[in-house]
Amino acid sequence: MKNEITGMKLRLIVMNFLQFAVWGAYLTSMGTYLFNIGLGARIGLFYAMQGIVSLFMPAVMGIIADRWVPAQKLYGFCHFMAAVFMVAAGWYGYVDGEAVNFSTLFTFYSFSVAFYMPTLALTNSVAYTALDKVKLDPVIAFPPIRIFGTIGFICSMLLTDILGFQNNYMQFFSCACFGVILAIYALTLPECPVSRGGEQKSLVDAMGLRAFTLFKQKKMAVFFIFSMLLGVSLQITNGFANPFLSSFRGVPEYADTFGVNHANALISLSQVSETLCILLIPFVLKHFGIMDGDAPLLLHHHQVLVLIADGQGAGNRRNLIAPRHVPHRHREKLSRPSCLVGEHRLPVQQNAVRQGLGPPDTGGGQQKLLPEQGVNGPPRLGLSQAQGQTAHRQTSSLFSGVAAFFVVHFPYDSIPKEVIR
After folding, report:
1. Which end of the chain has a smaller Cβ tally under 10 Å, C or N?
2. Rounded to two decimals, what is the model's pTM?
3. Helix and strand element counts for the chain (H, E)
4. DSSP string, 326-376
């Protein structure tokens, strides 16, 4: 039995590693590629599309997985289709170079993320079912496995950086390769049962809309707002941190620095810090004297926050609402109101990233001159460039600061017991 448990954990570790390696291949570097091909003003739309499709695609795929197609097979199918459209986006970028048309590239990308975002929830459903087969409690056993998802994201970011893909369309091909591997691997995962008939759900329940009633509780509303602000700050950084750092190639004093030439590697430090914080949780729980009975619940709260911080919140609707094929004895734990945070981040996030705020445009590693720049001598920052950089820093800092305020003024022990139990 011990060998069976170890083997199952290793299989789920590989699944989580690949799941987030798919995303890490392009999420933090796509902004630079879009600026290089003249689509810097549209970067907000690309990142907003992840949130838009997350509002309905996870629910649609969840219904299919509940009633007709086993979750692990649907999981593999979604990854395969996401990879197909990502290859199409990469191939279009290869063929047309810098003359790519926004509508065509955006269409391929939108279909890809439409199939990818539901997998963020399906991977948790598959993992919970698999852990139940070996009689492990997912609330306790899953968080250590989930850490390897962040590690996969980091490794994928570094690979994109080392191979020189962060400035071009090759990052889409790298993403597709991970996706195809995971689609094949998904066929080997444990079988997830489907419900043939049984209870009938209303459209409100099927789409997870009933969770909005939690806003009636002041404590939960504050918690949701904090999560939204945190997600806004993160997505702004995902979209603009890499092009902002890369833009300093046009400044002689910084042109040869590590952060400018390996922006993705520098940004990966944020993911490294996340991993280290996750590993510190047991130490913090022990030394801050939180009761043992509350530790599993707090660990699950943290898992939800990590999913939100990774920009995954809305994609995990099926996990957070405890889908039917999750074993019955775990549904009560996974259906607690405080576990339904992720769904409500995206509307704010979408509005923020649609603003089109952006750092200076870069092309082929060379700064593009604006009217305010001098033709002779080193290029200097133009007005629109400075505005873009300032907007990025100030907006991200604003939302991070407000989110931090909510953290300080909303400790876990302030949540009423009747809310979380």
Report:
1. N
2. 0.71
3. 18, 2
4. S-HHHHHHHTSGGG--GGGSHHHHHHHHTT------EETTEEPPPTTS-SS
